[in-house]
Design goal:
Blueprint lengths: L1 H11 L3 E8 L2 H10 L6 E9 L2 E6 L12 E2 L7 H13 L2 E16 L4 E15 L12 E5 L4 H10 L3 H15 L2
Parallel strand pairs: 1-5, 2-6
Antiparallel strand pairs: 2-3, 2-4, 3-7, 5-6
């Protein structure tokens, strides 16, 4: 993984780096741990530009009206760029080109009796082709174009849930938007 990170930095730039401690309920931490496989402890989050807007996604369990930037993990033996493009296609239906590596966040998810360390790699990407229509309908319920003026309402929904995972996504979104 370290060699891949260095290659992505060489090709797409050195990202800003942040660290965060994020409190979670034990049930949230258990859920995060249940979604990882093969020792994965990361996600790649993509801010995909199409014109002046960005492609955001919603998951079936999200509160009504909540959309966020798509994200996913690199499979074992898959390079970062291939994984990012695959995740974009699965979650949004579109083909992309990575543009810039803007941010790396190392987060320590802390539950009352347990923890999990996670890294989020955040990239900007450019829409190339395809219809905005999620391919993985089981995981993604909708995808759409959003303007940056719409993002504050999504962050407010995330924060209003009281869930640590959504609080982290709101933080991540704030920090990424500062760097767009």
């Amino acid at each position: 993984m370290a060699a891949q990170e260095k290659e992505m930095e060489r090709r797409f730039g050195m990202p800003d780096r942040l660290s965060k401690i994020q409190p979670l309920a034990q049930s949230e931490l258990d859920f995060i741990k249940s979604t990882v496989s093969g020792g994965r402890a990361h996600d790649i989050t993509l801010f995909i530009a199409k014109g002046d807007s960005f492609i955001f996604i919603a998951k079936p369990f999200y509160p009504p009206g909540l959309f966020r930037a798509p994200s996913g993990g690199v499979h074992p033996n898959e390079d970062f760029e291939t994984g990012a493009k695959r995740e974009a296609r699965e979650e949004t239906g579109v083909e992309i080109e990575l543009e810039k590596y803007i941010l790396r966040i190392e987060v320590h998810f802390q539950a009352p009796d347990d923890y999990f360390d996670w890294t989020t790699y955040i990239y900007t990407a450019r829409y190339l082709s395809g219809e905005i229509d999620p391919q993985d309908k089981r995981e993604i319920s909708a995808a759409k174009l959003v303007g940056l003026d719409e993002v504050p309402k999504f962050k407010e929904i995330m924060r209003s849930t009281g869930r640590g995972g959504f609080a982290y996504r709101a933080f991540l979104t704030d920090e990424a938007i500062k760097r767009l």
